[in-house]
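R.M. (postdoc): so does anyone remember the format we settled on? I'll just put the structure tokens first.
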């Protein structure tokens, strides 16, 4: 059985391609998911992509990833937590509590944006952080996660 790479996208990432293209580009979430599947396949991993605008759902998926890790079936998680990056101690705690190998990814460079976006609650519990590389950052994060685990 192939190890599973879980791609988790948070709030408003379903709007990729139309939301602020000057910041996020014109690639859609479907484009991101295709890139992630192709990159995971190169590494011999299965890939499942999920998106939710709800914090609790994201936390449930992190918990599920923790169970997959315990079962020896998880390659890792790539998380773009969107705005929850800057607000969710609960996501931080879920990642820390499960101990999953996680790559944090952001399409834009959060440190070049509004001051309220500069702090990430995810970074301290991530093995890999990639930001400011556009949607190509997802592929970079997957490869870096593979190298780090």
């Amino acid at each position: 059985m192939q190890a599973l790479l879980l791609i988790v996208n948070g709030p408003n990432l379903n709007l990729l391609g139309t939301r602020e293209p000057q910041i996020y580009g014109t690639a859609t979430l479907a484009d991101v998911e295709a890139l992630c599947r192709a990159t995971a396949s190169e590494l011999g991993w299965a890939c499942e992509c999920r998106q939710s605008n709800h914090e609790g759902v994201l936390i449930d998926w992190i918990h599920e990833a923790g169970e997959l890790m315990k079962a020896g079936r998880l390659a890792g998680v790539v998380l773009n937590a969107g705005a929850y990056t800057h607000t969710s101690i609960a996501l931080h705690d879920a990642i820390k509590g499960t101990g999953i190998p996680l790559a944090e990814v952001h399409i834009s460079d959060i440190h070049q944006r509004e001051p309220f976006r500069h702090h990430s609650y995810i970074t301290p519990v991530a093995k890999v952080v990639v930001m400011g590389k556009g949607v190509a950052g997802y592929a970079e994060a997957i490869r870096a996660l593979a190298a780090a685990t």
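R.M.: ...and that's the designed sequence above, right after the tokens. Also worth knowing: The chain has one domain: 4-148. Residues 55-70 form the longest helix (16 residues).
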